[in-house]
C-alpha cells in the first residue's frame, strides 16, 4: 500500500539571524517504511519543535528537543544536531494515519509544556 505525505515549507523569521528551512514538496512512501524529514536552522538559541497537521485540524505537537508527546514516542524521534544545525524528524514503521503536513517550528524562547 502506498501512502502520501505532504510537506510544506515554512520560513518563520524571528530576527535577521534566526531562521529555519524545511524541504518542500510531497513524499510518497510504502507502509512500514521509515522516512526522515529535514529541518535546518540558523539561530544561536535553537528552541525547535515538530508539529503534525491533519486536514481541517489544528497542528498537533509532536516533539521539541527536550520532550516527545507520549502518543508519538514509539515511532517518532528528532535529535538536535548543533554541528550540522539540523533537527530531522524520523518516523519509523509508517502507517496510513501518518499522512499529514509536518511543520518544523522555531521559537525565540524556550517553551515548557505544563
Automatic annotation (TrEMBL):
GO terms for cellular component: T cell receptor complex. InterPro entries: Ig-like_dom (IPR007110), Ig-like_dom_sf (IPR036179), Ig-like_fold (IPR013783), Ig_sub (IPR003599), Ig_V-set (IPR013106), TCR_variable_region (IPR051287). One of its GO terms (biological process) is adaptive immune response. The keyword Plastid does not apply. It holds the Pfam family V-set. SUPFAM superfamilies: Immunoglobulin. Keywords: Adaptive immunity, Immunity, Immunoglobulin domain, Receptor, Signal, T cell receptor. It comes from the Eukaryota. PROSITE patterns: IG_LIKE (PS50835). Residues 12-114 form the Ig-like domain. Residues 1-16 form the signal peptide. The keyword Lipid metabolism does not apply. PANTHER family: T CELL RECEPTOR ALPHA VARIABLE 16, T-CELL RECEPTOR ALPHA CHAIN V REGION. This is Ig-like domain-containing protein. It comes from Sinocyclocheilus anshuiensis.
